[in-house]
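Name: HPF/RaiA family ribosome-associated protein
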Amino acid sequence: MLVQINTDTRVDGTEATSDAIEDRLRERRSRFGDRLTRVEMRIRDVDGDRNGARGIEAKLEARPAGGQPIVVTDQGASTDAAITGALRKAVEILDRAFAKHDAVR
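Structure predicted for HPF/RaiA family ribosome-associated protein:
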């Protein structure tokens, strides 16, 4: 599975940050095995210098093998909060999608 992390210029996009995000993505998606071919995370600062309660946006795109991409977005006061929310949403949607797919088999 390919993991790609993209950040805007206002979000810390160092290699250490990318590695930490990749570790979290791999940990959460390990339950799906080889069912995902690619996961892409885009993180951006949506409110500039205001640093409000929803200042960071994390958009996660997961591509199931042979299926349509699933895209979720979450916003939080910190990068960690936004990533956690996006991961939670993606796991819920993927669990449902794969459960339906397995039931049809």
